[in-house]
Amino acid sequence: MIPRYTLPEMAELFSDQNRYATWVRVEILASEAQVRLGRVPEEAVKDMRRAKVPLPARVAEIEKERDHEVLSFLAAFCEDMPESSAAWVHLGMTSYDLVDTALGHTLGRATDLLSGAARRLRRVLVERALEHWDTVMVGRTHGIHAEPTTFGHKLAGHAFAVERSLGRLAAAREAVAVGTVSGSVGTYGLIDPFVEAHVCQALGLGIEPAPSQVVARDRHAQLLQAVALLGACVEQIALEMRLLQRTEVREVEEPRTGAYQGSSAMPHKRNPTTSERLAGLARLLRGYATAGLENVALWHERDLAHQSVERVVLPDALSVGHFQATAAADLVARLTVHPDRMRAHIDHTDGLIYSSSVLAELLGTGMEREAAYRGVQAAANRTIATGEHFSASLAKDGIDLGDLTPQRFLTNHDVIRARLENLRDLDD
């Protein structure tokens, strides 16, 4: 996690201080359950509640001597309570009962933050899609002018992609927001399952049904995949905006501050830096997803190979995804659209983008398909070679189909708008 790509609310969630605060909460909840079972005195739990959350600096200091973070945390936590009460802390638990249960709680909250940013992005895309539903522009395939579409239709596709990502995030949240308090190798050998049920219910977590001492890592891999897929959807938006901002296209322009400077050497440059940044961050997210897959297979009931990876990829992926979705929503919300440029590009190829409409109408008259296709293609080639308008080239072959306009392609367009309005209703 670096400050440049981490928003404050996500940084606080993954801070060492918050992690230790969550660990304290798990320890207290577990001890509360032990009180109900008659295994821990009530006074000990009262002392645990009065104890302060250990400072990260103190835990790090003890860890220099113990070389074990959980033991160091427990030592620091117990310093602030009587020895008679400290003796009951962590009763029957193993380290990852604490670590994984707290992690499930944190990942659930972090996924909620990310989903909130994604919902805002979806809302902004829908709003701007409806705003520009009738803003006609060229649709391009293989980077080549194809047929007319609208800018609203283009944004609608991105809105539905983000909606699918929200569904994947919801499923991943359910998968990852689980805990286990089952003791060494997950057999409940020294701890009653009631403790686990009490802790997880209080934290809003599911329970790992067959714990192996740790929560299964396919859950975390699923979350990282969902984050990476959202990142790829944002990258698609960013790539589209980059392409539409090229000098020879200039159909849109991303928002810029008054302090913006595009080049240290060329003062005229207005580079698509925000879009490029969003695309670059998606590459990181795909890398984190791969690391998550590598973490699934552990030796026997557990090993520690996953831990060092997760310390990096889980907070980084959620922070980067959250930043990326937030920045993408800001970009789309404040995007400058140039309808005049879009309309000019409709006419750039002298009517060639209407070739499929002409072909369809000729076929509708009963003309043989191969003859119709070759005839329209020959007229198109003359337009390319001479620069005369496509309708004039068609006229030389005796084909007069009237005015060629974008509306020929958009007669059924509002069926998609209706679907988009249904998506808008999710935020109402």
Automatic annotation (TrEMBL):
Gene3D superfamilies: Fumarase/aspartase (C-terminal domain), Fumarase/aspartase (Central domain), Fumarase/aspartase (N-terminal domain). Residues 350-421 form the Adenylosuccinate lyase C-terminal domain. Pathway: Purine metabolism; IMP biosynthesis via de novo pathway; 5-amino-1-(5-phospho-D-ribosyl)imidazole-4-carboxamide from 5-amino-1-(5-phospho-D-ribosyl)imidazole-4-carboxylate: step 2/2; Purine metabolism; AMP biosynthesis via de novo pathway; AMP from IMP: step 2/2. It holds the Pfam family Lyase_1. InterPro entries: AdenyloSucc_lyase_C, Fumarase/histidase_N, Fumarate_lyase_CS, Fumarate_lyase_fam, Fumarate_lyase_N, L-Aspartase-like, Pur_lyase. It catalyses: (2S)-2-[5-amino-1-(5-phospho-beta-D-ribosyl)imidazole-4-carboxamido]succinate = 5-amino-1-(5-phospho-beta-D-ribosyl)imidazole-4-carboxamide + fumarate; N(6)-(1,2-dicarboxyethyl)-AMP = fumarate + AMP. The gene is purB. This is Adenylosuccinate lyase. It is an enzyme of class 4 (lyase). GO terms for molecular function: lyase activity. Coiled coil: none annotated.
